[in-house]
Structure formats: structure tokens, C-alpha cells
Amino acid sequence: MKKLTLLLCAVVILTVASCASKPYVRGKLDAEYERLRLENEKQLMVLREDLSKEFDAKFRTEIVSIREELSQVREAMANLQKLLAMESMSTGKEMDGIRQQVSSIQAMLNAIAEKQRVDGKE
Fold first, then answer.
1. What is the count of structural domains for the chain?
2. Is the full-model pTM beyond 0.70?
3. What is the DSSP letter of 91?
4. Are 80 and 105 within 8 A, CB to CB?
5. What is the pLDDT of residues 10-28, one digit of tens each?
6. Has residue 5 been placed in a domain?
7. Structural domain containing residue 56
């Protein structure tokens, strides 16, 4: 009977100890989970910032180069239009050549502008 009583007491003590430690363990697990969640959020924010900076830098340089090309083409077009105005007395064949150059430059401008629109949408 003593053994049964001792066994019963041991079961009660282990049950009480187990129940008493659960909130402590649960609290530790919750604290660790929260710490890891905050750490992951910080790492995610850093990764997002790095990706954003890389993306911005890449497309800024691309946009700058396209703008430079556009500027050069516009300048060449303006020069050709000036030539066209000055050469209005030229023969028809020369005028056709100049008009053809102006048309090709306008086509290049339109293509570059379209590329910018497409890049802007992406």
C-alpha cells in the first residue's frame, strides 16, 4: 500500500510540475518566436531596400542613356531641318535626300519614345 501511495504521490507531483512548467515554456517559445519574427522582418526590409536600390540604379542609368540618345537625335533633327530651310532652293533630288534623313530621324525618335513607354510600363 505504501508503494501505491508513493507512486500516486509521484504521479501527482509530476503532473503538477508538468502543468506548472507549461506556461513558462510557452512564454519562452512565444518570446523566441517573436524575436525570430522581428529579425526576419528586419532582414526582409534590408533585402527590399537593396533590391530597390539595385533596380533604381539599373533603370536610372538606362533612362539617362536613352535621354542622351534622344537629345542627340533631336539635335541632329533640328540641324537637318535648318539645312532643309536653308537649302530650299536646292534641286528636288537634294531635297528628297534631306527629307529622307529627317524621316529616318523621326522614325528613330518614335522608336526610342516607344521603348521608353514600354520600359515605363514594365
1. 1
2. no
3. -
4. yes
5. 766 667 666 655 666 667 7
6. no
7. 21-121
